[in-house]
């Protein structure tokens, strides 16, 4: 009888790969099922045991913050682009993330007190403030628009996403809501 190859336990050598798999799985599962999705579903999606998940991420918040950090790295790269269009690209990507991965807004809302010790509340406004003046100087957005206004619109978009009945109507509802604001910030 042929011997079936056994999958070997790579131990610590597999840690970086497991961490990446968990973060990727968490992004997908949170996007599909929300912030309160079972962590066991994330471990299963990543192809690892729950013990591996908890070794890397002792709490749900730790895991969500790791995914959130990837989002910020992406947004920071966009904001670092020196041209006037960086604000538009930042805004478009922020809208996409709000629509596609609203679980992270849920996470932020559910854990506000725990996040007080982090810099999350300051990072997004800083990115907007870094790109908005260039867009204003180029005439791409009104001079009267502030970073606080942009964040308010983003929160409004999240409200549309959170209260939509089905996934099919979300994008249309967001487009209509932004249109009602007079096209100041279109996605």
UniProtKB/TrEMBL annotation:
Matches recorded under PROSITE patterns: HTH_TETR_2 (PS50977)
Domain HTH tetR-type: 16-75
UniProt xrefs under Gene3D superfamilies: Tetracycline Repressor, domain 2 (1.10.357.10)
DNA-binding region positions on the chain: 38-57
Record key words, sorted: DNA-binding, Transcription, Transcription regulation
Record-linked InterPro entries: Homeodomain-like_sf (IPR009057), HTH-type_TetR-like_transc_reg (IPR050109), HTH_TetR (IPR001647)
Top-rank taxon: Bacteria
This protein's name: TetR/AcrR family transcriptional regulator
Source organism of the structure: Cellulomonas fengjieae
Taxonomic placement: Bacteria, Bacillati, Actinomycetota, Actinomycetes, Micrococcales
